[in-house]
Amino acid sequence: MIEGDRELSAMVQELWDNDVNRLKPGKDYRISLQGKAGNSMGINDNSDGAGYPLFTFVDENIFKKETFLAFISLLDNYESDTGEPEIVTPEEVAENHKFLDSIVQTPTMKIAHKYLVEKHLSPQDETQFKEQLYRIWFELYTRRGSSRPDSSGFEHVFVGETRGGRTVIGFHNWIQLYLQEKLGHIDYKGYSVNANSPQPDENKHILALQFSWKNGIKPKGSIFIGVSPEFEFALYTLCFLSSPNERVRVQFSFYEVEIVCHHYNQKHIGTTYPVLLKYNKHK
Catalytic site residue 172? Predict the structure, then answer.
């Protein structure tokens, strides 16, 4: 492991250890992995490896916590189809700022901010830091095939988008997945594994999966499950700002993970998500 990744791993471990709002598998939530997803890209094919929802239980009292509440309020602010310009209302801007206000007060974001300041990657002033976060995550940009701003890092990663109505892109967040599944918009198709990836575990916090959303299919997605919004925000911001590579390998807790982080014009997050490489014995 190269030196930069080792340093980043230590930081991610610290974020993990201080993610006080993380849910406990089997206690705060339960998932049902069922079967392995097929290779088909169709919506109504017969390769569905799961006849039941992914989530069998989530303690929704958790969603009353400030950062979860602020995060969930943002999920309905977006037009999912790329190519459809986003209209951002003053109310939505206020909700974005309220979310950032809530997460910068959390231990995980404070740790990330301190590290980024030490590395001269973020301003020390909290207001300026929030402006930087806003630019990275919430400023609109134009995705492929569109003439007007129709996307943002936040929308792509946490909410999900559709391309051409048939393909789901982004959508790497478990809270959005749970809420959309509860509404009947998600059909979980099973977990995804390849020759090199470990078997998924219902008591671990990372899962590769296939699902359909609305009329589109996500052939393979990868998400953290049960972590807080501030943990993902801190982790992805850290990787975006501190690593010039679009793939960075980190080790923390039981996990060896590749964080994929594509930049858009070096100013915004294009996409970012975890890829589980293997389980480690927890040191």
Answer: yes
